């Protein structure tokens, strides 16, 4: 990129670490436990190996694997799982069992969904798995599948105060859930899925207009009971957020994101408008399977079933009357891990980890990057004190910036172990490419940028970190929060605390800071000098004159 600042490379930032937040508890050893989750779906079988932190009540994904087993290709006459499909399933599960064992997992939790529960010989298949591989597989019902999806999505996305509609389009069924952070209000599972529609109704591809109209009518009729149920449970005045998860949704989201000038690094939390979704669907419907295989987000098997899946997504969106959806990378697999944690007393309730998800994901990164947590907490405390006492003078934020400022303060020094002199640039890179669950893509970028601009130069147009902030409002927020963090970090000059608290007096054109020592008559000349060195930047950025004094 012409004129952009260079970004440091760090291998530790390339691994995708995921976590959920949870309630605190006492009496735990703090040791990690390895758990594996296997989701036996209609089209694919997935494995997750998770490392569960029993103190933080979080989990990290150690390894994720997927195999296209195509269990949904059942015998057209009897509806039974075919011998070939079952053999593919057993071979995949054998590999997954051995891979999980190599990670020394303590337990493997499993779930078999639509294809197995509907097949007349589904239970025979599960018995074969137990006899041959020693794996006991849970055959979950439609509502239980929906509940596990809810737990998985909840573990990686902040619901706030708004209800969410969760849509998971599988190969054999579609789950639609109405939920908030405390509980699921409606759990529905409908026997309409991408593999099922492709198998039963798609004979010609591209699909002729008449067949497409029939498919849309069939989807609408199938989903009407589920949509009616969730509509009845939406309270007056509520505007739910639609969240889509599954391979179909992620592939369509990737195609939509490819139209952006700056496609997101991660699709989790990415938002797709109904207009953009419609454009992607029209493009896919007109293509042959061979043409769809040429699209990078779509593999060979996905190319065959993406159109029926896309029509389910499009039709559901129309029926719900929503204009935008958000993508979630988390679903049933992560839900199995959360459910295991709930059943083993590692989570007290669902809402406890939902309510603190942002804090826990930040602390997880603090530990991952070996940040001095005590010093980071001191900087964060000073930053929030400045925020609370300078509203209307140093910033005009409505509350969003406070959480972003706290996160940036906790992580602002994470790049110090790479390069001390330019650590703010390395901190930006590590935060930008790390995992911050519960934060949108835009918020994630802002946290990284606040940390980037807490020292040295103010933002410049040529900086990659500044170019990534696309809206004027977000740039204003970053500038204001970064200035507050700059002042808070200027007080962190020594390993041990010497500044007990700040007394802040803000008026138009002048900011007065009084440093109150930790102990009586303590010398704070170093901290006073450090703050005074920020005066020119404060003046340039805000037009405020900075005045510093020490109590006593």
General description of the model:
It is a single chain. This protein has 552 residues and is α/β, with parallel strands linked by helices. It has 3 domains: 22-141 and 333-353, ATPase, nucleotide binding domain (Nucleotidyltransferase, domain 5); 157-329, Nucleotidyltransferase, domain 5 (2-Layer Sandwich), CATH 3.30.420.150; 357-496, Orthogonal Bundle (Hypothetical protein af1432), CATH 1.10.3210. It is 46% helix and 16% strand. The chain has helices spanning 83-102, 114-118, 122-133, 142-154, 194-201, 209-232, 247-257, 274-285, 289-293, 300-320, 332-343, 350-355, 357-368, 373-389, 400-411, 423-433, 441-452, 464-467, 472-490, 525-532, 535-542; strands at 32-40, 44-53, 58-68, 107-112, 164-169, 174-179, 184-190, 241-245, 271-273, 324-327, 499-507, 510-517, 545-550. The strands form 3 sheets. A 6-stranded mixed β-sheet has the order 7-6-5-8-10-9, with helices on both faces. It has a 4-stranded mixed β-sheet with strand order 3-2-1-4, with helices on both faces. A hairpin with a 4-residue loop joins strand 2 and strand 3. Mean pLDDT is 89; it is low at 1-29.
């Amino acid at each position: 990129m012409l004129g952009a600042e260079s970004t440091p490379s760090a291998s530790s930032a390339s691994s995708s670490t995921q976590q959920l937040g949870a309630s605190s508890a006492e009496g735990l050893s703090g040791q990690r436990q390895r758990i594996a989750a296997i989701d036996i779906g209609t089209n694919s079988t997935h494995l997750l190996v998770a490392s569960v932190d029993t103190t933080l009540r979080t989990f990290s994904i150690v390894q994720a694997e997927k195999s296209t087993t195509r269990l949904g290709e059942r015998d057209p006459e009897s509806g039974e799982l075919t011998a070939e499909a079952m053999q593919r399933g057993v071979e995949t599960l054998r590999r997954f069992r051995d891979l999980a064992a190599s990670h020394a997992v303590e337990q493997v939790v499993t779930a078999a969904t639509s294809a197995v529960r509907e097949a007349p010989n589904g239970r025979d298949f599960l018995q074969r798995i137990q006899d041959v591989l020693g794996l006991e597989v849970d055959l979950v019902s439609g509502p239980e599948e929906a509940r596990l999806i809810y737990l998985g999505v909840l573990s990686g996305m902040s619901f706030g105060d708004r209800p969410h509609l969760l849509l998971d389009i599988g190969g054999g069924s579609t789950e639609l859930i109405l939920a908030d952070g405390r509980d699921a209000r409606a759990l529905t599972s409908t026997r309409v899925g991408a593999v099922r529609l492709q198998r039963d109704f798609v004979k010609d591809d591209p699909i002729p207009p008449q067949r497409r109209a029939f498919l849309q009518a069939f989807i609408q009729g199938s989903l009407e009971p589920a949509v009616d149920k969730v509509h009845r449970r939406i309270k007056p005045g509520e505007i739910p957020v639609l969240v889509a998860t599954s391979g179909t949704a992620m592939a369509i989201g990737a195609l939509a994101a490819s139209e952006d000038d700056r496609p997101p690094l991660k699709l989790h939390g990415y938002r797709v408008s109904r207009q953009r979704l419609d454009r992607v669907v029209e493009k896919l419907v007109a293509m042959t399977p061979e043409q769809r295989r040429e699209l990078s987000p779509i593999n060979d098997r996905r190319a065959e079933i993406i159109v029926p899946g896309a029509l389910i997504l499009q039709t559901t969106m129309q029926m719900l009357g929503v204009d935008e959806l958000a993508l979630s990378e988390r679903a049933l697999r992560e839900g199995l891990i959360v459910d295991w944690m709930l059943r083993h007393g590692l989570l007290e309730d669902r809402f406890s980890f939902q309510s603190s998800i942002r804090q826990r994901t930040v602390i997880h990164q603090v530990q991952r990057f070996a940040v001095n947590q005590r010093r980071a907490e001191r900087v964060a405390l000073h930053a929030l004190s400045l925020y609370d006492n300078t509203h209307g003078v140093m910033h005009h934020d409505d509350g969003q910036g406070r959480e972003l400022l706290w996160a940036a303060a906790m992580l602002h020094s994470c790049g110090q172990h790479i390069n001390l002199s330019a650590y703010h640039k390395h901190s930006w890179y590590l935060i930008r490419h790390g995992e911050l669950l519960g934060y949108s893509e835009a918020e994630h970028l802002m946290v990284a940028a606040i940390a980037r601009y807490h020292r040295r130069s103010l933002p410049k147009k040529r900086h990659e970190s500044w170019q990534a902030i696309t809206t004027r409002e977000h740039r204003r927020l970053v500038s204001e929060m970064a200035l507050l963090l700059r002042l808070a970090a200027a007080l962190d000059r020594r390993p041990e605390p010497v500044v007990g608290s700040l007394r802040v007096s803000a008026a138009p054109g002048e900011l007065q800071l009084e440093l109150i020592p930790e102990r009586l008559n303590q010398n704070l000349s170093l901290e006073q000098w450090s703050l005074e060195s920020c005066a020119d930047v404060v003046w340039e950025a805000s037009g405020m004159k900075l005045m510093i004094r020490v109590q006593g």
